[in-house]
Amino acid sequence: MLRRWQIVKVALLVGMALISNAFAADNESGKLKISGFWDGYFTFNTSNPATMVVASPNYTFKVENALHNFTFRNRRPRLQLAEIVLERPMTEKRFGFRLDLDAGTTTEWVHQAEPAGRSWAFVQQAFVSVPLGKGYLDFGKFVTHHGAEVIESKDNWNYSRSLLFAWAIPYYHAGIRYWLPMGKSDKVCLHLYQGWNVIKDNNRSKSIGLMWQRSAEGYALTVNYTGGAELPNSSRLRHLLDVVFTKPLNAKDALMLNADWARDNAASATWYGLAVYWRRQLNANHALTLRAEIFRDADGFATGAIQTAKEITLTYEMPALWQRGALLRLEVRHDFSDAAVFDGGTKKRQTLFILGLLQPF
Prior knowledge:
The protein is mainly beta. Helix content is about 10%, strand content about 50%. The strands form two sheets. A 16-stranded antiparallel barrel has the order 1-4-5-6-7-8-9-10-11-12-13-14-15-16-17-18. Strands 2-3 form a two-stranded antiparallel sheet.
């Protein structure tokens, strides 16, 4: 039987979906825009692993597919995420804002250790954008600008998340950031945050950083640094350097590289990795993406085990013909490690077949 808070979440999402349909035709510049999506999946892990119970300050999770992010459960259909977005674009003379309201296992995992409490799991983003000088200022809560992938699977090339997304970088920040265009193709972002995945800071230190982006005709490059104390009641720094490079190869093919390196001095821990993506657009509605990566958790801080983990994923994307706008992603993924971290710590590899269904509205 559904608990009361689950019923409230479902009712809220249904109500906001109906509101979004009412506003769907209003796309004029400067008007309030309402959109959203829901995302569900089914995985078949050939190992049929045992269920692990993962407890956190805010939630408890059942996990069968080790090292995965969000696609935790095996051989049962699951809702991963449902999201409603309310946004008013910023103009040269007027502030803008964005509010993302979420429900599902994904946002619960993202906010599992939030010091301000579990209620923040319903708010993925809530920020205001204000024109300032030659650039603009954001302040509030927003998803991280690190990494090649994002929380919403519909905006990624693959369905399942990379090891780097899952274990190398933060999910979100609270604070301020200033975006400044530099010429026709470059821009920089200066940011001051509470830290990694916190609304209420867990120490007296803030995180600062700098991001540089170049969007040229033949490629895109982002170099991103964030540094600050992240462990509770600590002043020793954590450093994160993140690089993303994307290059169209021809009319159908594109290449993307993502590299991460991090060091937490308070934990005496280092982790780093590299992911390579190749995507082929077969036609207007069908695409094929291959991802291969390696992640080294040299001290066992990120994943809980000293290991070098690798994975290779092949994803086929196609429209779901029975529902307008819906996408199907069919995926096969093989994870392997030099440590026995799969199936309750008994195996060094696992193979999954994944079906993802995404419905924007």
